[in-house]
Amino acid sequence: MTNIAIFASGAGSNALNLINYFKTNTQINIACIACNNANAGVITKAQAEHIPILLFDKLMLNNETEFMQMLTIHDVNFIVLAGFLWKIPAYLTHNFANKIINLHPALLPNYGGKGMYGMRVHTAVIDNKETQSGITIHYVNEHYDEGQIIAQYTTTVFQQDTPETLAHKIHELEHTYLPLVINEVIQKQKTY
Questions:
Q1: CA 72, 78, 11, 48 torsion-angle sign
Q2: Which end of the chain, N or C, is less surrounded by CB atoms within 10 Å?
Q3: CATH homologous superfamily for the domain 2-190
Q4: Among the options 74, 104, 122, 138, which is catalytic?
Q5: Is 122 one of the annotated active-site residues of the chain?
Q6: Contact, 186 vs 25, CB < 8 A?
């Protein structure tokens, strides 16, 4: 069984999508939601689905022994970052080598890096008059948005698009493709 911890900081629409997608899967389980924001909408969504919540601050995240113990209690062996805004400490990328993936709301390497998330990304894409945007699903390493790319999916950006309409298109791509890619990555890793 692959037990996934979903790291999220916000509303949690991708987390809920993953919870629903893997609900009946016999090989992949959403073991917990790890959240750094006590007011995040993802907490309410996780509680409604009876998914354990790991609430933590920066001090806890940077305490390797304590944080690894929290993950071990839930037998976590795979991590998905879905709207998680903090940098992942090196000990986690080491202990979960090629077992942490991130969802980024743009086509990396463009519009990535520290501070590039959510509406900031969509506003930059619109301001630069890009004709395409999309999502990138990639492995996490010690640098923001620089891990090996697993998959990218695109959408057309029209002149009349706003950051809000682009955000809607990006969410549709995220909800469609993130569960499929997670499933594919985990199945591939099991065959090695």
A1: negative
A2: C
A3: Formyl transferase, N-terminal domain (3.40.50.170)
A4: 104
A5: no
A6: no
